[in-house]
Amino acid sequence: MKLGIIGLPQVGKTTIFNALTRGDYPITMSGGRLKVHMAVIDVPDPRVDALSQLYHPRKIAYAKVNYTDIAGLEGTTGGNLSGSLLAELSQMDGFIHVVRCFENPSVSHIQGSVSPQRDVDTMEEEFILNDLIQVERRLERLDEDRKRNRGDKTEIAREEVLFQKLSAHLSDELPLRVCELTVDEAKAISGYGFLSLKPLLIIPNLGDDQQPPALDVPDESVVVAIQGRLEMEIAQLQPEDAQLFMDEYDIAEPSLHRMIRESYQLMNLQSFFTVGEDEVRAWTIHRGMTAPEAAGVIHSDLQKGFIRAEVVSCDDLLSYGSITAARAKGLVRLEGKAYHPQDSDIMHVLFNV
Ligand SMILES: Nc1nc2c(ncn2[C@@H]2O[C@H](COP(=O)(O)OP(=O)(O)O)[C@@H](O)[C@H]2O)c(=O)[nH]1
Ligand SMILES: [Mg+2]
């Protein structure tokens, strides 16, 4: 799962990326004016920490999210994003839009002044226009196919209806994220990489002592305000020093952690856990997966040979201190192939190959 960190120039994208990577060595690629940095980040998870305290495992594995710092968006191009930038953006599974709120006279703003709402709208507009152009192009192709008797007639007619619906929606200046689509329609357009369809997390980047701005955003986007520079400074401290610093300023948890968790949920991901003295591990699944599909994330043999799973909630395991104790309380369930694992489930898969 890949999340792109986007935004206008000088809004704090790289600052936030550095906070995420804590000075780790990101993979750097560079092509033309497009600079892309990528890093795989652990999803901070107090449940994994608590389970690790219980088991003292040799290995601890958190869930992971892949972040890419994408430069090169410079304002509105009227839907004409350069090919390489568009290709990069289309590959992402979701976006983190960093919006500048901090005032800093020595850092210029490409639009001349700081205005979070205008920047949110600018990016949305840009994505909508780019999608509209793709949709119009597809409609032209379909029209040509029809005229030249190419392809399957009913298939072409069906697609035309769908793309006309998308065109009308985008022409109303609405992102595809809020377009009502059937499961089949969603599947039919999933390969196009439409930008305004991808889940969006908006990050107002606040200056010191600044309050988050009131933002008008489409229903389905999530907003998490952070102080980018402060987060980067905390992330670059040694863990003990970071704790002291947070105690002093009464910060329970870096907002960055919340941002990472929100971005994980944004992509419809959730975690189940496996526990033991060898390893405590968070596994990532899509919401709605069945138990055998979830088992397949661990190993394909577990999916093929799935018999059933022993399941206990993380809270119950932590309250009773061991699987045996939880079982004695009747809190360990046996679940079959039709079960949909829930967030926080601890699963032990029984299988036979
Ligand atoms: N005052 C203040 N300055 C910031 C903050 N975040 C970033 N900056 C400054 O803004 C400039 C641009 O930041 P950068 O992360 O490179 O922006 P990018 O172009 O979006 O990647 C740098 O000089 C940063 O030090 C912040 O939260 N507060
Ligand atoms: Mg940058």
Termini separation comes to 30 Å
Radius of gyration: 23 Å
Order of helices and strands: EHEEHEEHEHHHEEHHHEEHHEHHEE
Sheet with the most strands, sense and barrel status: 7 strands, mixed
Known CATH architecture of the domain at 288-351? Roll
| CATH fold node name of the domain at 288-351 | Ubiquitin-like (UB roll)
Q: Outline, from the CA principal axes?
A: flat
The number of distinct helices, counting runs of at least 4 residues, comes to: 13
Q: For the residues shown, what is the average pLDDT?
A: 92
Produce a short descriptive summary.
The chain is α/β, with parallel strands linked by helices. 40% of the residues lie in helices and 22% in strands. It has a seven-stranded mixed β-sheet, sandwiched between helices. A three-stranded mixed β-sheet has the order 4-10-9, with helices on both faces.
